[in-house]
Amino acid sequence: MAIFSTAQPLSLPRHPTFSGPNQPTTNNERSRHTISLIDRCSNLRQLKQTHAHMIRTGTFSDPYSASKLFAIAALSSFASLEYARKVFDEIPQPNSFTWNTLIRAYASGPDPVRSIWIFLDMVSESQCYPNKYTFPFLVKAAAEVSSLSLGQSLHGMAIKSAVGCDLFVANSLIHCYFSCGDLDSACKVFTTIKEKDVVSWNSMINGFVQKGSPDKALELFKKMESEDVKASHVTMVGVLSACTKLRNLEFGRQVCSFIEENRVNVNMTLANAMLDMYTKCGSIEEAKRLFDTMEEKDNVTFTTMLDGYAISEDYEAAREVLNSMPKKDIVAWNALISAYEQNGKPNEALLVFHELQLQKNIKLNQITLVSTLSACAQVGALELGRWIHSYIKKHGIRMNFYITSALIHMYSKCGDLEKAREVFNCVEKRDVFVWSAMIGGLAMHGCGNEAVDMFYKMQEENVKPNGVTFTNLFCACSHTGLVDEAESLFHKMGSSYGIVPEEKHYACIVDVLGRSGYLEKAVKFIEAMPIPPSTSVWGALLGACKIHANLSLAEMACTRLLELEPRNDGAHVLLSNIYAKSGKWENVSELRKHMRVTGLKKEPGCSSIEIDGMIHEFLSGDNAHPMSEKVYGKLHEVMEKLKSNGYEPEMSQVLQIIEDEEMKEQSLNLHSEKLAICYGLISTEAPKTIRVIKNLRVCGDCHSVAKLISQLYDREIIVRDRYRFHHFRNGQCSCNDFW
């Protein structure tokens, strides 16, 4: 929401900024006819014709007529800065009104700084002095380019010109200081205004909201009420935005009541702000009631309601809103795609994207591409991700930081690390998110040393890391066993980079220590934490106990975790698996009975593979796929071939109570990643890489089978499990059996 501007709509004869010379009161018919011609101009061609007529008839020499023609050329709906400057240069002695008009036009144009040069020309080449109408436009230019030093200089000049306390100048300075992030100076200017108008209050309220201090905006609104200042619809939009950011539904309701009781003019912008507050604060029913009573609705209205339904995970209702829109724009499509993608429904997001591709006259934008790339990354849709990358190149879409990061993330999570590196290397400028995305990609592929090296290259480029950077770094260290490096970097977070470790960072260090076998050290690290250990911290320790079969410590970690989150199904399953590997089947039975009684369900193993742009999913023991008969036939062939080459099933990976050895082996063979790999073998020809995504950690037996298949079938197999990538080539895995 834009901060309320001191610049008013064009209304030349009445607006004080453009008071100019008085209109001639003589009976000169030519002059009156010229003014009439100017007033009737509705496009630039007509204005140019009038300009030529004025020169021919000599009426351009009349200051009022020339100034009016120039103002229309500079500020009307069909204005042309280039033409306006030409008209200005033809005026023999421009007055203050004309100079201010030119300054205003440039301040509102594509290059606001040019208004400063016009101002310098004004003070050096003319006898006109800057006045209270000059500075608001100059200050606006400083705000547009977020130049604090320029704003401060103009503030000083306004004071020297004795207009620093003028209300319009002060209001523009408040806006400028907020735009430049100097909240203290904005507050100081506000306090110096003796008679504040509603614009002063609005500038402060909206400034606080936009700069991340919505609580201060609400405090100021309360003070505004106490001083009996009549609020406008702009005030209420700002206050509602503050409520939305704070997720303060109760105060938001009070604001809506205030609007009704005080008969504040509810235009479309305010109505949409009310709707947005209800949806973002989680009151979808109140949002629906407001939506249904709104006589007028624009695309913002529909998109806000759509987004509200999506937030509440009522996707059917969200879809109905999209279908009911008179004109579906890209913003609405983006809202639905983003909602699915951000709420763990990437397949649905991709279905909506494919539907969007069929729409005519709707152009994909950067938000569309970033959201869809993120969905591709989640499901491993590499072919669609490649198509989007080609689309970006074909349509000349600028590779900003968001798109670059999304492409690196997509290629990394889809298993094509080389392509991720290529994207990273092809961009000249990289922000912290681009660097972090590349470090994260290296981390999930087990390239720990390279990730650490890249972090130090990032420092050489003077890019300051953030919390995500360190999370990715610690993951890289964890998957490669770089314990010393992780501990060193953790201690540098605060001392060298001023970043306070969060619970996710502590969980990462516990994972680094535990995965490498330093379980007791991990426990001491947890005990020394300055914040209470979270479920993720205890979960990291529990996972390490499973890897290293430490039953007693696992029981302790699981107990602590369940104290914080009693219905955590993953903790129950992990402890059950540890009991199973230790042969404690009675404990396994007790845990599983507890899960049945309490309604907890184990997340089923699911593996997916992309073939010809389509995602195929397999559950353990799945028969739902249309080619399941061929898949199981291939599985039988593969397992027999592996056995003849020395493969022996790892029965320790059977975590159910099964007495029969043959049934144990069969249960291992039905794991979802084996089914997906076999589908890849029958659906593609060598040397095409088989890429599989597993929602859980790959088990030891499937890991051994994938290594052997890569060797015996001469195929590269890339498996992404819950934690990292495994690249299987020639019977070896990139993880070196450390995962």
UniProtKB/TrEMBL annotation:
Protein name: DYW domain-containing protein
Positions of the UniProt region annotated as Disordered: 11-32
GO molecular function, one term: mRNA binding
Biological processes, Gene Ontology terms: RNA modification
Domain DYW, residue spans: 646-739
PROSITE patterns named among the record's database cross-references: PPR
Stretches with biased composition (Polar residues): 19-28
Organism: Capsella rubella
Family to which this protein belongs: Belongs to the PPR family. PCMP-H subfamily.
Domain of life where this protein originates: Eukaryota
PPR repeats: 197-231, 267-297, 298-332, 431-465, 466-501
